[in-house]
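Case study 2.
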Amino acid sequence: MNTPESISRESAEDPSDDQAVTAALSEITYDEQFYPARPRQLRPKARRRQMLDEGRPPFDPDARNAVYVEWLRNQSMLGDADAMSRQLSGQASMWQKPFAHPSPRSALDRASVWFTAYPLSFITAPGQSFLGALAQPSLWDAFQEIGIHALHTGPVKRAGGITGWDYTASVDGHFDRISMAIDPSFGTEEEFRAMCRAATDHGATIVDDIVPGHTGKGPDFRLAEMNYKDYPGIYHMIHIPESDWHLLPDVPEGKDSVNISIDAERALQEAGYIIGQLQRVIFYEPDIKETNWSATRAVSGTDGTMRRWVYLHYFKAGQPSINWLDPTFAGMRLVIGDALHSLVDLGTGALRLDANGFLGVEKSAEELPGWSEGHPLSQAANQLIASMVRKVGGFTFQELNLTIDDIKETSVNGPDLSYDFVTRPAYHHALVTGNTEFLRLTLRLAMEAGVDQASLVHGLQNHDELTYELVHFTTRHKDETFNLFGQNLTGAGVAERIQNDLRDGLTGEAAPYNLLFTTNGIACTTASVITAALGIRDLETMTAEQVDQVRDVHLLLSMYNALQPGVFALSGWDLCGVVSVDVDKVAQLVSAGDTRWINRGAHDLMGVNPGAAESSSGLPKGRSLYGTLPEQLKDETSFARKLSAVLAKREELQLAKGELIDVPDVSHPGMLVMVQRLPSDAIAVTVLNFTGEGISGTVNSALLTPGAEVTDAFTGETLNSVDDLHSFYFDVPAFAGSLLVLREPAAKGGEEAP
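Prediction:
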């Protein structure tokens, strides 16, 4: 096909050949028609300010000390954002890319199989940084051999807070960002750029993180407390006059803020300062977090006035929420600047949007919680972020637990891709119960809502818990009736049934090595989900046969995620088969109730440090059932090698960019059938068995053409043909799956139909 560049070139050489140009234009996409001359690889460039760390100055860290205020300003994200944006403003390169609409299939062209890293858990060679390890060509050679096209780094920029001149530790796994600078514990900016170059050399891309909902208590928050220039406008923070300090709780010695009680929240609302209660309190913990608001200690401003503030935090107290509709638009400037730094300075190709559903908050009618979820401002802010990223040639995905309706709505103008939190607990439920009915229900609901499966990121494990909040059923559809397991259940009833099944099957007596994480879900790895489902209670005494069975089930779950349209994502914990860490080994980390640390065991992906007992961040090494990638790639029976065969066929058929068109009823409750239309217009059928017994059953769908030959995509063997009832028989072994391609019946005259 002619490219826009070649069309422009040819028309310049022969201006009279309008007919050829018109014919060529009819073959290219909408975006290419409207941007016919843009260079495909053209990207704007800008650099963050480089501030030298000259050590601690001999001055008090106080707002009345101009040296300290200037030091904070030089470290601030808003300062970097302003510098970045000024370099890009007015540049022609900022107008060369289409940006108005999400383009999931363009994102899939860039990368449809992702490796999701977690910096704190990644074991490196002695003396090597996390980013230095990710820049190694040997790692990318292994990824290329498996079929991995992108690496999601996880958060690697400096996070935590600042107290005086001193940096303090992150309170949420580096999702409390305080700087655009790379955290020195993970490496350097040059190592980050080297990682991006290594990815490009292997036809891959790097996915970075931005956090548009909050920061940590870093320089920006400290300047905001000081009431310095635009900085208070970054946050949802309200100055409380000294005359009303009696409404605020005392801040304990050694603390800089304290969570307010429900009574104080109500009093401040009645006084007109805050909007009060929100729709829910995430990470609720008695005496630790009872509301979404905290009060600061008295802080001196740059004008010498002492002030106390009340600030919003959807998550932990160290994560003050960003205000997207302050008149200064300081919060928006900070977030956009952080995104641009990653894309046009460091060289990434995509961004994950963390906690991007909590960007709008509004007062509701009296006695009702404030409107804080599903707010139109969140959608508008996401559209702005995603559009800016597309404007400089990148793409975005949101890792947010949304209803199916919200996924559909945000797909219109927002991020290009959304994480699939709807069917992930559903396929775990299918494995635990041997029944795919709930999984089939969720897939059908997404189809009915018009969600394009190709716009979803289907993942195995990420750094979080197995989320099973099932917000689709517990929020907008909690009173709707669903027929499930022979019963008519409300949405709330569906969620309760599924959650109980997962708790009973994956924790407690069934699997003491997995733990509940608040009300959000279960702290576990994919491998420890499988061991629990297989009835293995003691991870230390597993036999070789049990490990092989875990590997086979892990491959089944990979096939569910990979043999359908969209992104397939997996982690180092998946590739190595890491099980949950003994809670005693992370006792200090889980002491505040965050049990997710048991599913974040350290792992040596490339076998570069076999003697290491922990990562450089101090996380204990988890038990790996499968071994390192170099070991696995030498073994044709290994998880990584078998997975590579699945991904190669997925790539060959361009399954990622296909369309899910039917999830039919099945002849056995443990079977799942997904009918898909490939980009070639051929029909592919994914058949999976979530039980420990072989199944002989019928695959039936009105979309299967009678007479079509059924071919095994992996072996090329013709198995049978579709009968007049639009069905065919198929055998699928225990905990296994197949990908079948239908060849249309011969047309009249003996010629095969196209």
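Residues 1-41 have pLDDT under 50 and may be disordered.
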